[in-house]
Specification:
The chain has about 350 residues and is α/β, with parallel strands linked by helices. The strands form two sheets. Strands 8-7-6-9-10-11-12 form a seven-stranded parallel sheet, with helices on both faces. α5 packs across α7. It has 14 helices and twelve strands. It is globular. It has two domains: about 140 residues, NAD(P)-binding Rossmann-like Domain (Rossmann fold); about 180 residues, NAD(P)-binding Rossmann-like Domain (Rossmann fold). β3, α3 and β4 form a beta-alpha-beta unit. It binds glyoxylic acid. The site of glyoxylic acid has 7 residues, from loops.
Amino acid sequence: MDQLIKVFATGPLPKQVKEKLARFADLKSWEEPTEISEEHLLEQIKDRTAVICLLGDKMSAEVMDAAPELKLIANVAVGFDNVDLVHAKKRGILVVNTPGVLDNATADLAFALLLACARRIVEADQYVRNHEWQGWRTDLLLGSELSGKTLGIVGMGRIGEAMARRGLGFGMKIIYTRKGNEEKDHRLTRELSARRVSLPELISSSDFISIHSPLNHETRHLIGKVELSRVKKHCILINTARGAVVDQKALIAALQDGKLAGAGLDVFEDEPKVPDELIALKNVVIVPHIGSATSETRTAMANLAMEGLLTAFSERLPENTVNKDVWPLFLERLKVGASR
Ligand code: GLV
């Protein structure tokens, strides 16, 4: 590394990540308990060559342009819909993310939401706390069984597959949608007896639908009014991906009308805002975007983001690069920076 990397981290980093980074970089970080505002971000980033950011930080053209020397964005998330990739390419800014290290944690949470909805755990907990429990009854808080039911996975990537394995362990049948060639489908059929179907087929034949697609221009509102009008009567929807993959207004209407029996939601269209209409619904379990929130996973994510950053500044292409086509321009900018 020919030059000292000037890093700004938009949130606190684990101790060991901080210590390693400090050996190679001049590190500044946002340590406040609240998310950094755009105004502060614009100010803090000015003289920085790299930023380690979180999924709530909008890495817009304006933010990037506030930092003329910015060469790399390390997003501590696998999803990168918060980063303007078109502008990053124009500027020659490399973007790295954190794939692979959060699959189990996220699938655990998706399955926890699925179980919580199916067995009405939150409602039952409140029932006891409200001193409503009068005694055992055959019809008290009946939920639905998982065994033998169909779990439809929208987006069978790494996290979707981890979710499918959990479903299989509970005796569920797995169907899924995904993009890409058939080789992976053969393996998924062999290993999980899973079947790839079209989105309309998944929508109309699943008892539980779990969303695992990234958010991009093809998946925004992938599940909308039409899809929600075609689900099975007792269908429960789980979303741990990105809120905007589901049309939130249509989701609320489907839950209010009873078209959809329930939903387990970790993500929302305009986080951290959660509409009052959703909060008012008993058949919804809501958690604050904690899919990857285990100590092990959060450390691994920060570590992977940092390693991506250090690898790139050592002139080696990180495996976790989102925009590999920017690499030649990044290298060129690195050399210009070093010769100054
Ligand atoms: C979490 O939502 C992530 O994208 O890592």
